[in-house]
């Protein structure tokens, strides 16, 4: 039993699981999910029967969630792979901290990949802004997610941050691995920079110095690479909205569309790289420095591990060359691949529809999408040097 102080954010306890599964299977939204996956009636019946046998979150993740995520990976990716296990070594409780491309699948794919090699399936930090309906919150808590409370004010910001941090330290002490993004929300331009506020939250729990508190979480930087991001045109649209309207705020409906598009859109090749243990390089953080500078150094260490472990695809090299208006990395792609990528980007730009009052800026949207694919290559290049 997880302590009561974490009741507002924790995954479901075992005794809550059977009722949650039954309610979920009877919810109209699940029919839409099954339809999206094109499951046959017999498949739905078999999965439902299997779900009803689950007695806790781990069983549900192993028996049911992995089936769905594996199905999605086979339907929407060319390949899904993992490397870097040798850097990680033995399977110990850890805190994966990664760049963030897809709202749901970054952590879901990671769970599947680790399950396939018999490693611990991590709990997942998810923002409450995405829990737009009660059934979604029940589903994510059933899948081992814990809730990050956002849009808070005053003292409640620190109170909730401390509770979240203490819960994450509690997880590690009790043998649970976990995943959290390096920043709040996805980097729309793919410039994956670790937020200092995330590190400060992580260090609110535990004991000792900043370095000792972070070390207690066994942080493992994780690099996530998608060949194609099905939400790229939605991200570009959001970038124009924000450019044209300083008060723009994404709606719950837009979050839902991003989740649906990310789940069921084509992604090409998807790769996860375990970058190694942050604890092995935390000695690079002088504890005599002011706290802010310590956090800045840790953020840079995480960034560097993520950047240098990206897996790059022709789309990344092509975009980087287009952005710089040269052919520096043309050995990494063919003329045919370049034309196919340009056609893809133009097709995605064509999908963008803006609300009344906005004028579609095609050159800006095109440039935004090129930058999304170029930035991982640019950051890796800065970290390791030229690819030539």
From TrEMBL:
Q: Where is the Phospholipid/glycerol acyltransferase domain?
A: 84-223
A GO MF term: acyltransferase activity
Query: Which GO biological process entries does UniProt record here?
Result: D-galacturonate catabolic process; D-glucuronate catabolic process
In terms of InterPro entries, this protein maps to:
Plipid/glycerol_acylTrfase
PANTHER family membership: PHOSPHOLIPID_GLYCEROL ACYLTRANSFERASE DOMAIN-CONTAINING PROTEIN, URONATE ISOMERASE
How is this protein named in the record?
Phospholipid/glycerol acyltransferase domain-containing protein
| Natural source organism | Porphyromonas macacae
């Amino acid at each position: 039993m997880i302590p009561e102080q974490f009741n507002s954010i924790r995954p479901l306890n075992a005794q809550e699981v059977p009722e949650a599964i039954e309610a979920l299977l009877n919810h109209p939204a699940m029919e839409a999910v099954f339809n999206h996956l094109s499951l046959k009636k017999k498949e739905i019946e078999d999965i439902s029967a299997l779900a009803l046998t689950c007695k806790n979150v781990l069983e549900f993740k192993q028996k049911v969630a992995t089936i769905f995520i594996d199905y999605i990976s086979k339907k929407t990716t060319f390949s899904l792979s993992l490397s870097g296990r040798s850097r990680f070594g033995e399977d110990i409780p850890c805190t994966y901290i990664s760049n963030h491309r897809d709202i749901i699948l970054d952590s879901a794919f990671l769970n599947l990949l680790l399950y396939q090699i018999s490693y611990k399936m991590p709990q997942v930090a998810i923002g409450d802004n995405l829990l737009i309906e009660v059934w979604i919150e029940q589903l994510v808590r059933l899948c081992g997610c814990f809730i990050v409370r956002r849009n808070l004010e005053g003292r409640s910001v620190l109170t909730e941050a401390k509770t979240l941090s203490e819960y994450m330290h509690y997880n590690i002490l009790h043998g649970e691995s976990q995943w959290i993004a390096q920043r709040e929300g996805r980097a729309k331009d793919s410039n994956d920079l670790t937020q200092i506020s995330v590190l400060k939250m992580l260090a609110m729990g535990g004991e000792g110095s900043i370095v000792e508190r972070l070390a207690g979480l066994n942080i493992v930087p994780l690099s996530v690479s998608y060949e194609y991001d099905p939400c790229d045109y939605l991200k570009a649209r959001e970038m124009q909205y924000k450019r044209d309207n300083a008060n723009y705020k994404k709606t719950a409906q837009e979050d839902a569309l991003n989740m649906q598009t990310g789940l069921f859109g084509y992604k090409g090749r998807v790769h996860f790289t375990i970058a190694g243990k942050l604890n092995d390089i935390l000695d690079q953080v002088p504890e005599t420095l002011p706290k802010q500078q310590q956090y800045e150094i840790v953020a840079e260490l995480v960034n560097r591990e993520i950047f240098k472990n990206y897996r790059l695809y022709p789309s990344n090299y092509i975009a980087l060359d287009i952005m710089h208006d040269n052919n520096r990395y043309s050995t990494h792609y063919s003329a045919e691949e370049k034309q196919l990528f340009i056609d893809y980007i133009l097709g995605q730009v064509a999908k963008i529809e803006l609300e009344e009052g906005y004028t579609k800026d095609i050159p800006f949207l095109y440039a935004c999408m090129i930058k999304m694919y170029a930035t991982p290559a640019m950051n890796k290049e800065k970290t390791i040097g030229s690819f030539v």
